[in-house]
Amino acid sequence: MFGLRKFNTPVLRPAAPFIIGGVSVLFLVAKMQDAMINSDQYRNDPRNPALSAGKKDH
C-alpha cells in the first residue's frame, strides 16, 4: 500500500516535439555560424576562429 507505485507515465512521446525542435535549431545555428565564419567579410579578420585552427582555404 505504501512506497513507490508503478504508473505508465509517458515521457518521450510528449517531449518528442521539443527534442526535434532543439536538434533542428542546433543544426541550423551551426550551419549559419559556419557560413558567417567563411563569408568574404570576415574571411581575413584576425578574430576569426577558423584562422587560428589552421583552416586556411582562401
TrEMBL record:
Q: From which organism does this entry originate?
A: Absidia repens
Q: Name one GO cellular component term.
A: proton-transporting ATP synthase complex
| Family annotation (PANTHER family) | ATP SYNTHASE SUBUNIT J, MITOCHONDRIAL (PTHR28060:SF1)
Record keywords, A-Z? Membrane, Transmembrane, Transmembrane helix
What is the name listed in the Swiss-Prot or TrEMBL entry for this protein? ATPase, F0 complex, subunit J
List the Pfam families hit by this protein, alphabetically: ATP-synt_J
Region (Disordered): which ranges? 39-58
Keyword match Iron-sulfur: no
Which InterPro entries does this one have? ATP_synth_F0_jsu
The secretion signal range is none
Q: Which residue ranges run through the membrane?
A: 12-30
